[in-house]
Amino acid sequence: TRTQKPTLSDCQTNEYADAQLQEIVRKMRERATIYKEKLKDPVLSSPEGSPTASPSKKPLPSPSKESKIEEKKEEAEAKPEMVHYYDMLCCKFKKPLLKKYMEYLQLPDSIDSYTDRRYVAWLMLVTVAYNWNCWFIPLRFVFPYQTPSNTIYWFTIDVICDICYLCDLLIFQPRVQFLKGGDIISDRVEMKKYYHSSRKFQLDVLSVLPFEVLYFFFGFNPAFRANRMLKHNTFFEFNDRLEAILDKAYIYRVIRTTGYLLFMLHINACLYYWASDYEGLGSTRWVYDGKGNMYLRCYYWAVRTLITIGGLPEPQTLFEIVFQLLNFFLGVFVFSSLIGQMRDVIGAATAGQNYYRSCMDNSVSYMNTYSIPRVVQNRVRTWYEYTWDSQGMLDEAELLGQMPSKMQLAVAIDVNFAIVNKVDLFKASSFTGEWGNGCDRQMIYDMLLRLKSIVYLPGDFVCKKGEIGREMYIIKQGEVQVLGGPDGTKVLVTLRAGAVFGEISLLAAGGGNRRTANVVAHGFANLFILDKKTLNEILVHYPDSEKLLMKKAKVLLKEKGKPAPGPPVQQPRGLASLFGQKQETPKLFKAMLGGRGKEGLARLLQLKREQDIQVKPQETDRGNKSTEKTKKKANKQKSRRKETPAEEENKSEPEKKPVEPTASSAPPAQQEELNAHAKPKPPAVMHRGTSNESLIISMSPSPRAGEGEILKVEAKEKKKK
């Protein structure tokens, strides 16, 4: 029997078959990725299993251990993606995050104590354990707070602190890097040897010695744990590392100094209770009477004694007198030293503020001495206040000057490189984007170190129109406005942070170019300035960069000198597109015509025709007289043979007389003026039509030096062919 082929509409999707096909596609994709990795790294072996051994042939070698490990890694890397795709809510999806977290917590082979924050966190934990021992061992030894009912709790906390000590001794400290001859040693064996040979290791070992075994012989006495207070090096190391990473370290210094004072008062309170217990509680007026909270009463007595407030009961016995004298001497020494340390901490925290205040006071005193106007004084005060509030110092160069040149360069690159790289004059080539075809990188670095930061107040002129441009300005913070217009108050453009202006002035020839507009600070503006002298000093050492900068400056000058694009010009259509566009009439010729277009030219031709009409009658009279002379000469030649020489002379004299008045020695301009006085001319009328005259325009040098050239316009008749 034949089965009919099902149509597309009759097809039904089998879920099981679809799942199997998807599984096959997934495996084929995994296999393709494995083969791609094998092509990239030919050292990897084939992921396929080795074939079964036949009796006639030797079995092929099985995959090596390295290949198996790599396959397992690949499968482990591929698993999270598969789980993430199919089982979105499965718990296995969280395993990669836990792995990354464990990798972060994994201890490195060597620890950089200056930059590793995890090491600082560990030191803080050890410091907490150290402070527990320092504060509570004397307290538990003197005051009766440790009882058989709560001994288990004290013992548990003591064990936790001892575990922290042991971990620091065995795990962390042998991994800390150290310096040897200027080199950072990170070798595991060398670091362990260095730690074991140090004084710190000896104190750490003494601090973990188990004197608690004496509990079995003398009872549970906290005095046997006094050696735990020998781990003071870790405490001071934590203070140094924490101050290095804090933004405001002086706050921690104040807290630490206050802690020192409280700890000394704590020790004094413990000693006072011990002395009272030795003399007998309530035996005299000087000792503690055993009433109220024993620790607070003793602490209050310690505060009044160390700070030398007075008002305490007088000691009665010799022991009390000696104890009180020692307590007074110790209080004066400790309290004065702590107060002095507190003063130094607060003074260091406010040193910059004090310097700022002294500078402002000196400036105000100077201005008052020379009677500076009040407006100027207010602007000076405003500048001081804004500069201090914005950057926390008055001169950044003074702070950077204390650093080595390499550190100054690193700071300058992080702060200023992104801004300088926006300047078209110094950025890399636009074709390749690499520094090889741009300015020398070291030249840019030298220039970064020479930038000066200046703060402008609102309304200050950064540069004025007509000034010689010798500086380039880069806006670090704030806004500036470019002013123009007839009165110089129209805002042409507003430049914000990151904008650059005046860069062409650095390389302009002929002593610099003049500013074409006023630039005013809109608000408080912080600008970087690079002057021309500094750039020339840098370019002396980089001649190739100097040539490149000169070329770039010429290109930028041409680009910035181009006029703004006008409306699009409509292209001619039809046959008119075969001819080029008509050139614009020169401006000088337009000014000479005194009109627009064809009207001025027609008027000029009309005036030329009127002048020619006045000259033509004189020329015709001269032509008639010359023809009469020629006729008379011919008649004379015929009658020469008949007449005598005397008669010829008599006849020639009257002939010459009428000719003399016709000749005029006056120039044509004077004749035109006489004609104008004699008879008024009709007004010039504009006639339209064709003419057989041509207009000739020429330029000739002026006979006088310094006047340039002279424009001449002549109208001549065309020659008839």
From TrEMBL:
SMART domains hit by this protein: cNMP (SM00100)
Gene Ontology BP annotations: visual perception
Listed InterPro entries: CNG_cation_channel (IPR050866), cNMP-bd_CS (IPR018488), cNMP-bd_dom (IPR000595), cNMP-bd_dom_sf (IPR018490), Ion_trans_dom (IPR005821), RmlC-like_jellyroll (IPR014710)
Localization per record: Membrane
Gene Ontology terms for molecular function: cGMP binding; intracellularly cAMP-activated cation channel activity; intracellularly cGMP-activated cation channel activity; protein-containing complex binding
Catalytic activity: K(+)(in) = K(+)(out); Na(+)(in) = Na(+)(out)
Bias-annotated ranges (Polar residues): 689-701
Transmembrane residue ranges: 119-139, 201-220, 250-274, 318-339
Keyword terms: cGMP, cGMP-binding, Ion channel, Ion transport, Ligand-gated ion channel, Membrane, Nucleotide-binding, Sensory transduction, Transmembrane, Transmembrane helix, Transport, Vision
Protein name per UniProt: CNGB3 protein
